[in-house]
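Q: I have 110 residues here and want to know how they pack in 3D. Can you give me a structure?
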Amino acid sequence: MARTGRPKKEISQKTFESLCAIQCTEAEICSVLECSEDTLNRWCKKTYKMTFADTFKNKSQNGKASLRRTQFKLAEKNAAMAIFLGKQYLGQKDEPEQQADSGVQIIDDL
């Protein structure tokens, strides 16, 4: 008995993971892969045994790590990036230290 209906959409796992790594939205991924959100979700469940949301959360971490590596490398030559990373990760601030004034004098001229 022959099967009828539309053939299954072939989705490139490598392309999908690359799009996740650069933080594309679900709609953008579907546009590039030329499929619907429902099709993408079914494919994720079949391929990764997870929903799209869980798969995206997992696969987008590679892109975040790559971006972080690039930022740290850039901070070696760019003072602005070094300052930004210092604020983000080391709790550094632009505020100057406040000094207590020990010579306060109160004048009452009533």
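Q: Anything worth noting?
A: The longest helix spans residues 52-75. Residues 5 and 107 are 93 Å apart (CA to CA).
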